[in-house]
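Subject: Sanity check before I submit

Could someone independently write out the structure tokens for this chain? I want to compare against mine line by line before I put it in a report. The sequence has 141 residues.
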Amino acid sequence: MVYSHIFNLLATVLCLIGGVLGVCLVPGLLGVQGVFSWLLQGLMMVGMVVVLCRFAWPAANWCYLLVVRRTLVTFTQARHFSVLLSMGKNLQWFPLKELTQIPRAERVAYLYGFLEHCQREGLVPHSNNRLRRWLMCLAPE
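---
Independent answer below. Compare away.
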């Protein structure tokens, strides 16, 4: 598995551990057997992927921006910047090391400008394509 930063790895590992434990333990605790057990396990796996994509990875990106890059962003803004902070299909991500050299008041504006530049250059997908946004695990705006 490839991850872009340590918070991304932690979010992925925690969700996978929680998902595997849930899939293994919950049907037995509820006393569900047979086809219903498989259905419940399938629904839980889908739910784990949704939680990972919609909440855990944006939370990891928020932590990366806050702790490592010392940039205060909202959770919604962290979702917007997820395409920059997650591995793309060409295994490229942007660590944004230059962010710490910019004054704190200008960092969010810089991130939005950098995101627009990367979208124009085709380095990251445009956020106006709903299917692509879902595939990149971004929440709808």
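---
OP: Matches mine. For the report I'm noting this point. The chain has six helices and no strands.
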